[in-house]
Amino acid sequence: MDDGELGAFLRSRRARLKPEDVGLVSYGVRRRVPGLRREELAQLAGVSVAYYTRLEQGQSRNASAEVLDAIARALRLDDTEQAHLRDLARPVRAKRRTPRPESVRPRLRHLLDSMDAVPALVIGRRNDVLAWNRLGHALLAGHLEFGSPNRVADQPSLSRMLFLDPHTRELYPQWTDEARGHVAYLRLVAGRFPDDPLIAGLIGELSMKSPEFAELWGRRRVRDCTYGCKQLRHPLVGPLELEYQALQVPDQQDQRLELFTAEPGSPSEAALRLLGTSIGGAAKLPASLPG
């Protein structure tokens, strides 16, 4: 990710704010650009216009945490956006080397296999599926070979599946919402790992192959998708409404364990139980994920 990403992010956040949103009076003067001017943002943040301009132009690296926090408050950034701002303004540069394949520890793989009543999968830094259990595979990608995550060349990419695989698109009745959140998370990850060539390659590929991805990527929104609700339209068991949680794997900060459950007594719970039965899974499903 180049230095221009910081300026583009700051400009996009400035553009979404109106003077009246932050207590400024415009006196009816016609504005040439949407949102706040640089001068207005600098005033709100308590920094000089010259310094803020250099920061937005990528000419001032390693801004202090205090300055970044002041700018974040002026732009009304949420916690995720503020973390993304820090990643862009103070990147941790890594030596360029060929990325090593991600792998799942044997104990985590054993845990997945033992959770036969809960759809579960392990996702890597670049949204590749590193492992899944039988029910997780049947829920999200039954049209793919179950053993594909075990082969580096064939590891399913959730990003490519969402934008380039028609089976996955049909799985999400609210595909646009799913795509919007996915791209926002991918941009957050790209900011954390600016020197990862595989992330850059993934973004470039999707930008060329999917106009929808390119349009969403250009919005520069960020979001950390750690929990929520997903609506699915499964080809075997029909509509599902499931809660999900993405948990960071201990000692593997780049990996997440994603789990799905249905509300007790709901049609979705019955459908999930039916899916488990169809692949020889356990009949009893847990009521909910730990809060």
- Biggest sheet: strands, sense, closure? 5 strands, antiparallel
Beta-strand residue percentage: 5-15%
Mean pLDDT across the residues is 87
What CATH architecture label of the largest domain applies?
Answer: 2-Layer Sandwich
Q: What is the CATH topology assignment of the largest domain? A: Beta-Lactamase
Number of helical regions: 13
Instruction: Report low-confidence residues grouped into runs of 5 or more.
Output: 281-291
Number of strands: 5
Which range best describes the helical content: under 10%, 10-25%, 25-40%, 40-55%, 55-70% or over 70%? 40-55%
* Domain unit count: 2
Query: What is the highest CATH level, the class of the largest domain?
Result: Alpha Beta
Terminal CA distance reads 35 Å
